[in-house]
From TrEMBL:
Pfam families: DDE_Tnp_4 (PF13359). The lineage of its organism: Eukaryota, Metazoa, Ecdysozoa, Arthropoda, Hexapoda. InterPro entries: HARBI1-like, HARBI1_dom. Belongs to the HARBI1 family. This is DDE Tnp4 domain-containing protein.
């Protein structure tokens, strides 16, 4: 983060985090409050370590950091993570097509567990299958790895599909509250198709949400190509999580704070991620820092028994046919053939 970027952040939140001097004590300045919070995030140091570094009581730190995080979210979210307008959705879709060869794509969705220390009197509510306690960050990322929407705080014991159907995003998607563009053809002369979000097999198949064909079934080459094209674009949300964790090392260890504070820390981290990344993109707007790879680690869950699933099924079939005809790219067959050859070798060995 540059000096100018820091000063801009400070100007946004200065009034919110300012404390008045008293007859007994001079208040900690607003710049120092912001520095302490950023250092806490960047270094991953505990409150105890920060307390020693700044000679500030742990109780004071536990007051400063939630206030600064909440202010960062309130002031930055409307600037770097506001709900896109219809023209802005189309810009996102164009970026996915230009960078990742996926048409009509509005974002990649996934969930990430943020590990926390066991909350008091929480029982198993935040206990996840990997024998740790967590809250969940559900996020949608654009083609550059910026977060479009987030939902923070679901209990770690819930599955990705349960977290999704309980999220604000699911509710507004079901109620047509996202201002999505009208259906458009994937190619000139084609049938109009919905704009879609893309996720892994943990998510339900819906009209506006595509997922891979499940790999526990025997897939043909066309289906494998669809899965490859989807996973190539979908990995942007995984890359966003990776950047978030490596930029803010606080996520390298369990958060030893109240649940309410943990939510504020995560939300602030996401808007700071967008703020920093947006400035980087503006410097090199036509470049992407991500390499090509193929992920096939899917975990299937039961489908929705609804008309929405049926619509999603036919939308996925249309995209699959398009990627294997008019929308083919020169290198996709080699990528998938490598997977088929590898599977064949593995089968012969057994």
């Amino acid at each position: 983060m540059t000096r100018d970027e820091f000063e801009y952040l400070h100007s946004l939140i200065e009034d919110d985090i300012k404390k008045e001097n008293t007859n007994y004590r001079e208040a900690i300045g607003t710049r120092e409050r912001l520095v302490i919070t950023l250092r806490y995030r960047i270094t991953g140091n505990s409150y105890t370590a920060l307390s020693k570094s700044y000679r500030i009581g742990r109780s004071t730190l536990s007051e400063i950091i939630p206030v600064v995080c909440e202010s960062l979210w309130i002031k930055l979210q409307p600037k770097v993570m506001k709900l896109p307008t219809e023209p802005e959705w189309k810009v996102i879709a164009k970026d996915f097509y230009d960078l990742w060869n996926f048409n009509n794509c509005l974002g990649a969705i996934d969930g990430k567990h943020v590990v926390i220390f066991s909350p008091r009197k929480s029982g198993s509510q935040y206990f996840k299958y990997k024998k740790t306690f967590s809250i969940v960050l559900l996020a949608i990322a654009d083609a550059h790895g910026r977060f479009i929407m987030i939902d923070v705080g679901s209990m770690g014991r819930y599955s990705d599909s349960g977290i999704f159907t309980d999220s604000n995003f699911y509710n507004v998607l079901q109620n047509n509250g996202l201002r999505l563009p009208a259906d458009e053809p994937l190619y000139e002369g084609g049938l109009p198709q919905p704009y879609v979000f893309i996720g892994d097999c943990a998510f339900p198949l819906m009209t506006h949400l595509l997922k891979p064909y499940p790999d526990h079934e025997r897939l043909d080459k066309d289906q494998l190509i669809f899965n490859y094209r989807l996973s190539r674009a979908r990995r942007m949300v995984e890359s966003a999580f990776g950047m978030l964790v490596h930029k803010w090392r606080i996520f390298f260890r369990p958060l030893d704070v109240k649940i309410s504070t943990a939510k504020k820390i995560v939300k602030a981290a996401c808007v700071l991620h967008n703020y920093v990344l947006q400035n980087e993109i503006e410097k090199t707007p036509s470049q992407s820092v991500f390499s090509d790879n193929m992920s096939r680690n899917y975990s299937e869950v039961s489908e929705q028994n609804s008309a929405d699933f049926e619509d999603g099924f036919f939308v996925r079939e249309y995209f699959m046919e398009y990627f294997n005809s008019v929308g083919t790219v020169s290198w996709q067959n080699n990528r998938v053939q490598n997977v088929l050859d590898s599977d064949r070798i593995t089968h012969n060995l057994h």
